[in-house]
Design goal:
The chain has about 240 residues and is an alpha/beta fold. The protein has one domain: 3-Layer(aba) Sandwich (Rossmann fold). Helices cover about 30% and strands about 20% of the residues. The chain contains seven helices and nine strands. Strands 1-2-9-8-3-4-6-5-7 form a nine-stranded mixed sheet. Strand 8, helix 6 and strand 9 form a beta-alpha-beta unit. It is globular and about 50 Å long. About 35% of the residues are buried.
């Protein structure tokens, strides 16, 4: 299988459905990813920076359905790792599903949070939507770096939300770099089966790791490849 992008130094992008692509890839040391949650398409019309959101969500829906089930991809990742070790950004509603999967396998789990310092001020009859969740699921024996600074082990990140003209659900770089620092070693292979615009691979390369990303939407593959190519240029300046 040929990659969509290959920097020649251990960073690759594959275009396709991760459920079909992943079995053909080498074993990874760590998974850090932001899968789709509940896909709300309906009759909504998107405009501005999210003009292509509906088409993108329909493409994901064709592969995964409206309600994302993490079990198939976790099963595949498990087969593609020697020791399961993964960070999955998810909705509050899906947290119990991930926890149940971990418990059934006698795996360990821990919840991390991104606290948005500038959440949208919509609070009528409910609290602000100012937290996103990440669940770290891992087997006994999974690598853990015990030599970082105290603050690197916090279970929360306080970062503002920045609009991204390329993708509807951007994550701050620390939400992807911190798991890589804590749970992998230099030259380890980082996997992101829902790559989006490529931030996981950018952070992996900055930290001296190899990385493989899979993305179903070719538009995002191109954005990710362009960002990676640009980051190489920036490093060489």
């Amino acid at each position: 299988m040929q990659p969509y992008y290959d920097d020649g130094k251990g960073i690759q992008i594959y275009h396709g459905d991760c459920l079909k692509v992943l079995p053909h890839l080498p074993k990874a040391d760590l998974c850090v990813t932001d899968p789709p949650y509940v896909l709300d398409i309906g009759a909504k019309k998107y405009s501005g920076i999210y003009a292509d959101r509906g088409a993108h969500l329909n493409k994901i829906k064709d592969s995964f359905g409206y309600i994302f089930d993490p079990l198939p991809i976790i099963d595949l990742i498990d087969k593609n790792m020697n020791v399961f070790n993964g960070y999955f950004w998810t909705s509050e509603d899906l947290l119990p599903t991930y926890i149940e999967i971990a418990k059934e396998r006698n795996w360990k789990w821990h919840i991390l949070c991104w606290c948005k310092a500038n959440s949208i001020p919509a609070h009528f009859n409910h609290r602000l939507n100012d937290i996103e969740f990440c669940i770290h699921i891992f087997q006994s024996g999974a690598y853990f770096n015990n030599e970082l600074s105290y603050t690197q082990y916090f279970s929360y990140f306080i970062q503002p939300l920045h609009a991204n003209k390329y993708h509807p659900t951007p994550k701050p770089s620390i939400a992807l770099s911190n798991p890589i620092l804590v749970s992998s070693k230099p030259d380890d292979l980082i996997l992101d089966p829902y790559l989006g615009t490529g931030t996981t691979l950018i952070e992996a390369r900055k930290l001296g790791r190899r990385g493989i990303g899979i993305e179903i939407d070719e538009k995002y593959c191109k954005v990710a490849a362009d960002r990676l190519a640009q980051s190489v240029m920036d490093l060489n300046i």
